[in-house]
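ESCALATION

Customer reports they have been waiting on this structure for their group meeting. Please prioritize. Original submission:
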Amino acid sequence: MTAGQRGFEYPIHVTWGDCDPARIAYTGRLPEFALLAINGWWEHVLGGDGWFQMEMDRGFGTPFVHLSLDFKSPVTPRHRLLCEVYPTALGTKSISFCVIGRQDGVDCFEGRFTCVFTRAASVQTIPAPPDIRAIVEPLIRG
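Update from on-call: job pushed to the front of the queue and completed.
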């Protein structure tokens, strides 16, 4: 994980097993890579706490209610996939992210993801916790 010029980037090692006979990553792997990167972003900004710790230790979760991906260039095992992650919006009960996957300086995909804050025990929506709001608001980009 690095915080480069673009912001937080999560590296993914794409392997041969991630690929189809055309030698590019299976389409279904790309959302998985993006979700790994978002979890890595949470770990980065919360000091080690990803989704599991949110649920178990903090008592809230952030299940997804929307995701979309635009494909721009094939993802292959040739280079590390660097996934830039940043929040784009923080609503009363939701948070949205952008994930841009790049290999060797080339944009491969861009995704938009929205999650809602829920109470872990009941999966009932809740407002964004104040400490999370304080961390996330300064990081929001358009």
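Sent to customer with the following note: Residues 11 and 50 are 16 Å apart (CA to CA).
Escalation resolved.
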